Amino acid sequence: MAYEAKTKPGAMTVSDYLAGLDPDRRAEAERLVAIFSEVTGYPPVIWGGSMVGFGRYDYTYDSGHSGSSFATGFAARKAELSVYGLSGDEAQFAALGKHRRGKACTYLKRLDGVDEAALCKLIRAGLDDLATRWTVHPS
């Protein structure tokens, strides 16, 4: 049986996604849409029903597994903002402000207190790093 990714672009609009969020989280998500749009130059697309992705890349691993994913983006979860595709060294992440890092994403409790300039640099570095391995498309 072939593997089919659950995280793929959906029919939901970004406006509908944002409208479904708690008002405080919605304001943060709207700000992140503006930041990611400015840094990437790509339009936002909803992936998997709950992630806002910017750009897309197609991959094929040595194992033969292949698929597509968004290049960078975020999810406005109830407890935290999950930000995907950031790259940088420890000093660059320290400049971001209060956060925690997982294997695939960076978690922010709130957007206030985050250094937006540092966030922009981490987004750009993540896209640049990704582009060394895969071709990144607008969507």
Write the layout of secondary structure elements.
Blueprint: H1 14-19, H2 23-40, E1 44-47, E2 51-60, E3 66-76, E4 81-84, H3 90-96, E5 100-101, E6 105-108, H4 116-131, E7 136-137
Antiparallel strand pairs: 1-2, 2-3, 2-7, 3-4, 4-6, 5-6
Helix pairs in contact: 2-4, 3-4
Task: Give an overview in words.
The structure is a single chain. With 139 residues, the chain is an alpha+beta fold. The chain has 4 helices and 7 strands, in the order H-H-E-E-E-E-H-E-E-H-E. It has helices spanning 14-19, 23-40, 90-96, 116-131; strands spanning 44-47, 51-60, 66-76, 81-84, 100-101, 105-108, 136-137. Strands 1, 2, 3, 4, 5, 6 and 7 form a 7-stranded antiparallel beta sheet that branches. Helix 2 (23-40) crosses helix 4 and helix 3 (90-96) packs antiparallel against helix 4 (116-131). It is globular and about 40 Å long. It starts with 13 loop residues before the first helix and ends with a strand.
Estimate the mean pLDDT confidence. Answer: 93
Uncertain stretches of 5 or more adjacent residues = none
Topology order in helix (H) and strand (E) letters: HHEEEEHEEHE
Give me the Rg, rounded: 15 Å
Portion of residues in beta strands equals 25-35%
Coarse structural class: alpha+beta
> Based on DSSP secondary structure assignment, what is the total number of beta strands?
7
* N-C termini distance: 28 Å
Largest sheet, strands/sense/barrel? 7 strands, antiparallel
Counting DSSP H or I runs of 4 or more residues, the number of helices is: 4
Which bin fits the share of residues in helices? 25-40%
Overall shape: it is: globular
